[in-house]
Amino acid sequence: MNPTTAQELKLDELVLDRGGKRVLHGVSLSVRRGEITALVGPNGAGKSSTVMALAGLLPRIAGQTLLDGVPLAAVRAEQVRAAGIAVVPEGHRVLGDLSVRDNLLAAATALPGARLPAAVEQVLGIFPELIPKLALPGRALSGGQKQMVCVAQALIVQPRFLIVDELSLGLAPMVVKRLVAVLQQVVAQGAGVLLIEQFTTVALAVAQQAFVLERGRVAYAGTAAELQERPDILHGSYLAAG
Fold this sequence. Notes:
The protein is an alpha/beta fold. The chain has a domain at about 10-90 and about 160-240: P-loop containing nucleotide triphosphate hydrolases (Rossmann fold). Helices cover about 35% and strands about 25% of the residues. The chain has 9 helices and 10 strands. The chain has helices at about 45-55, 75-80, 100-105, 115-125, 145-155, 175-190, 200-205, 225-230, 230-240, and strands at about 10-20, 20-30, 35-40, 60-65, 70, 85-90, 160-165, 190-195, 210-215, 215-225. The strands form 2 sheets. A 6-stranded mixed sheet has the order 6-7-8-3-9-10, with helices on both faces. Strand 4 (about 60-65) and strand 5 (about 70) form a beta hairpin. The longest helix has 16 residues, at about 175-190. The radius of gyration is 17 Å and the shape is globular.
């Protein structure tokens, strides 16, 4: 990843409504470069709403995003991406009618044309499994291969921060292990990763920092190691969602 002066991505006091209902109540969290930060919690806690707000896909009632302490002046999706924040959305979403190669190129439209070949080569170096699949349409891929394409699409622009929503959902353990290794590689190269998971085992095993969402509020903010040692916190959050 390219070096940058932005060392921290911070969400400050985010308030968000969806469908006329308040779903986030002053959510604050931070992601440091060179670390994985876990955002965990039960279904309906507000995790995906947080991701969509960070990605510039949902309007906010209040709150701001800051890069190294400097507020983003605007938070539309293309501006968020241009600032160095890339998102892997939930659901292994690829463009089914386009080839794998064209899926990668479609994600790199912001790059100068001269950089495209090197950018594609770089992500194929991360996911060599995709090389034999380049001419196949996205719909022909397995779930794990689609998720690899989604991660590659996010990484092709060399983001400062990578937000991954439900990395492991519906995937075999070996595929999850492969993808987690990629996230660790990305972090080792200096990026920051926000890993959102309903199932906590994978996220807390690799994260340094952790946040727990409970009904649109932060119920825990601290180290992942401490959270692993405090199962009562997670248990209480998941019970509260019932």
